[in-house]
Amino acid sequence: MKYQARLLSAGSWLCGCLVIMLMAANPVVPEASMFNGTGMWLALCVFTGLYILPMLGKLIKIDYGYYLLTGWLAINLLLFIVAGVPVVFSVGALGLRLLLGVTALLGLIDLMFWLPQALVPERPLQET
What we know:
This protein is mostly helical. The chain has helices at 2-25, 38-59, 65-82, 84-89, 94-118. Helix content is 74%, strand content 0%. The chain is elongated.
């Protein structure tokens, strides 16, 4: 079960990175596109760091990582919900809007499978 939780965590990270990149490529105002800009790369680095930080706790045998990752994934729901704004209000390309909507929906589905696993007492991401 812990391998399934790790796989779902990696899927959530991947969907989150794709949503950040697609939101930068398809803003509500097309003139404000910041794809491949400093802000996009900084957001991706912070996003990745927040996924790596809980895994470091496992490496040094501290049991904070499980709780940190569970909280971060719960907050990550907001990213996928906010990704719907450019889908609805953007005047950009329909293909980018559709891809952003599908990616955000996949991220939400991933988190809906992950969160029940996170709430079980066995702590699937930790060594028992």
